[in-house]
Amino acid sequence: MSGNISASSLVLSLLKPTLLLAICFISYKSFRFFNRRRHYKKLAKAWGCAPPKAMKVKDPVFGLDLLRKVLKDLANHCLLEENQKAFKKLQANTISIMSQYRVITTTEPENVKCILATKFKDFKIDDNRKKALIPIIGEGIFTSDGQAWEHSRGLLKPQFARAQFDDAELFDKHADNLIKAIPRNGEEVDLQPLLGSAGLDIVTEFLFGHSTGSLDPERLKNGSTTKSGAEKFYEAFAYLVQGINGQNSRFGVLGLFLPDWTTKKHVKIMHNFVDEIIETAVAEQKKSSASLDSKPQRYTLLSELVKSTDYSQEVSRERLRSELLNILLAGRDTTDSLISNISFVLSQRPDILAKLQQEISDSDIPLTPSFSQIKSLQYLRAVINESERLYPNVPENNRQAATDTILPLGGGPDEKAPVFVAKGTLVAWSVYTMQRRKDLYGDDADEFKPERWLDIKGGEEGEGGGGEKKGLRVSWEYLPFHGGPRVCLGQQFALMEVSYLTVKIVREFKTIEAVEKRPWREKIGIVATIDGGVKVKVKPWT
Q1: Ramachandran area for residue 52 (φ above 0: left; ψ -120 to 50: alpha; else beta)
Q2: Cβ-proximal residues to 77 (8 Å cutoff; 6+ apart), any chain
Q3: Residue 33 within a domain
Q4: What is the total count of domains within the chain?
Q5: Are 146 and 266 within one domain?
Q6: Structural domain that includes position 24
Q7: pLDDT tens across 450-474, in order?
Q8: Distance (Å, rounded) from C-alpha 92 to C-alpha 366?
Q9: What does the DSSP 8-state code read for residue 431?
Q10: pLDDT tens-digit map of 12-27
Q11: Using CA of residue 311, residue 312, residue 317, residue 320, what is the dihedral sign?
Q12: Whole-number Cα distances in Å, 186 to 193, 246, 348, 453, 536
């Protein structure tokens, strides 16, 4: 009996300090929580802020009910539509979720302008996004902030400014490979993966000077079982792109504890492929510098980066690889999404296809048109603009508040008061919902109508330039290429690529018939694209 009492006393004596520490920890955290909330309310009052309308959730602490709904909407391919309904239900353009100090989401152009431009330094890349991306593509222009981002931007911007977008040869041979890969006998084909392959072939040649050649007719014809380094890279890249949106999703809940060895293997394949290309580029640059009669090499982003930097000191091989992979990820996926969406529309809307065919026929542009010649096709650009408006490549985005700050609109019953944003708050904006607002685009905002863009004039996209035609204003409510200091460097290259491929397809095929008449349905990854692909039957002109 005494032994049991002694054992009980020993357990209690051990538990007491543990319980005391737990109570102290909880008390400290509670004190900090309530103290911060008092501080936030005091600041909000001093700055004349009012809270935005709030979305009701059953679990305001962890938001588990909201998480379940998001996962269900993702599985049902209706997340964007459901988010749009949430704004309509609250009759608000800015709402708070769980707590206004944790998550705020907006569709107000002035708030988006504030986040991306006027208060640019008050916001940073979300920490969770960095954790997902950096192990795969490294630290580069899309995964860094502050001085590191400024360095990346400064390194890449001159190269894109000097890029030879009028070099139609770069686009033409890959566009020809795409056309050859499309069955001409009325057989059903999914254009989406073919368009993605063409996009990757183009962007890798532009970046590296070596294309992945995934649509090379010789490669497709011989059907060799031995995979080239480019093929392995293509497969690794495709695998990683599918998983970046949630690396642990392959294993469900177990993914939180189990390493994904397949992901690690594909990351190594991708990194080794790029490293070999960099080593070759550096060797060629050294050889060219040493030779007085070396022929000028074709422009590539990699060659220009190697030439413009002290490679051994300023930029390590790892950093250069990361910059290239950052650009590759953005360059391939966004253009893949855009050209797939346009092809989907052309297959569903023969009237739009006919207008494009007529414009190209009337323009009498050459078979290998330059960028300036392609830019003269106003209806083509209107189709691209409308696709980017209705089916944005990056439909929702976010930033994390780096300091206590405010959004200019969204507070109070009339949403006219500023909204206080505490440091650490996740601030999201829905481009999908904003670009479908009827008060901004008219009662036909849900319709695909290229005509709304004809003769629109204004500043650069995403910079708040503006323009008007028949009441339609183009500014921060239209963000095809982001905006502010982080506006997309490669937008002109992307427009040339998408325009060139579209012109090539429209010229080659008299009809592009959808296998099934259906509405556009989202598939969310790094970018939003079409669930179910673009399944068509085509008929050539001759």
Answers
A1: beta
A2: 521, 522, 523, 524, 531
A3: yes
A4: 2
A5: yes
A6: 1-46
A7: 999 997 654 444 444 344 444 455 6
A8: 50
A9: H
A10: 565 667 676 777 767 6
A11: negative
A12: 18, 38, 17, 34, 9
